[in-house]
Specification:
By secondary structure, the chain is mostly helical. The chain contains ten helices and no strands. It has a domain of about 130 residues: AhpD-like (Up-down Bundle). It is globular.
Length: about 200
């Protein structure tokens, strides 16, 4: 599940134990990424604060599109599965998410969505490849500079989280086996899902 020796996730201070308990109650299982961060709860709390500050300022669907685009580029199965699942449950069908994730059918993505996904992909692949034209494209589509910065922040933050879990050898949770089979296969772009 990880290359690192992980302590029991419910060790730590009261705040950390409450967070772990809440995750178990909400999801019905303890996510593997929380097991990893049990080695350094302060880092997870800092990540959570950063992610909340970004997420709280963005349209939820846009945040999920940006997150999935960045995760796809850096081959993070864990983040692709987690956020592709949200897209498929709250905003699109599994077939629609599969189609635009593969790039063979933009389906429900409009011009703004495509421009946002393209920027997130560039940020994750090579941030120095982002040009003034990429920013102007989004401005021309009606996004403010704050909106554009939020896309950049969400993509860059996703790279941090995904690279930490992948570098530590953390596998996506076995619960992802319950996803639509084609969607699950499409979103598994890096490390395999933990055996059930």
């Amino acid at each position: 599940m990880s290359f690192l020796s992980l302590p029991p996730a419910d060790q730590g201070d009261e705040e950390w134990r409450a967070l772990v308990e809440n995750a178990e109650q909400t999801l019905g299982y303890l996510p593997n990424y929380l097991r990893l961060y049990s080695l350094h709860p302060e880092a997870y709390q800092a990540w959570r604060g950063l992610a909340s500050s970004i997420f709280g300022q963005m349209d939820e669907r846009r945040y999920e599109l940006v997150t999935v685009a960045a995760a796809r580029r850096i081959r993070s199965s864990y983040c692709s599965l987690a956020h592709g699942k949200i897209l498929a449950e709250k905003f699109h069908t599994p077939d629609e998410v599969t189609g635009f994730y593969r790039g063979d059918d933009p389906g429900p993505l409009d011009d703004v969505d495509r421009a946002v996904v393209d920027l997130a992909d560039k940020v994750a692949a090579d941030a120095t490849s982002v040009t003034r034209a990429d920013v102007e494209r989004l401005r021309d589509l009606g996004l403010s500079d704050r909106d554009i910065l939020d896309v950049i922040l969400a993509a860059a933050a996703r790279c941090f989280f995904a690279k930490v879990t992948d570098a530590a050898g953390v596998l996506p949770d076995a619960a992802f086996h319950g996803l639509d089979p084609e969607l699950r296969q499409t979103l598994t772009v890096g490390r395999p899902i933990e055996p059930a």
